[in-house]
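Quick illustration, no need to memorize.
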Amino acid sequence: MGKIGLFYSFKSKKTAKIAGIIHNAFSGVEVQLVNVDEVHEAHFQEYDRMIFGVPTWFDGELPNYWDELLPALEEVDFTHKQIAIFGLGDQKGYAENFCDAIGIMATFFEEKGAQIVGNFPAEGYTFEKSKALKEGQFRGLPLDQENQARLSHKRIENWVEILKKEFNL
């Protein structure tokens, strides 16, 4: 069955908090926490199933640590890998690019052969645009800790159930 790698920056406090909640929601399943600030390409070959935590910075950008890592992964083949992405964003302050980082990451890894899993319904969110949307669903789990923090736990529970099915757990 194999282990699952949960990749995020241990320095990003909000993302780290959410990663911990996701980790706990996988009760009874081996999920390894991986600090994306200290990884290199070989780490990504250790897992067939990966979860990436990525907040959207500024006007729809990836955080520096992901932005600097992706070019090093250009030649890595992610065929037969399943990747799920959760991201943090602000629907009110950045409504025109809410959780764009999810979409940027999904597109990158899909182009490298990965299967993106964990699509999440767009109902209950209020924003103008998002690169994370495809065919009316998010390509991962968007969370807004600024405006909808009270909804995060339930959304995480629902998303982890989706992932368990898609990961065949």
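Strands lie at 4-8, 31-35, 49-53, 82-88, 115-117, 120-121, 133-134, 137-138, 141-143.
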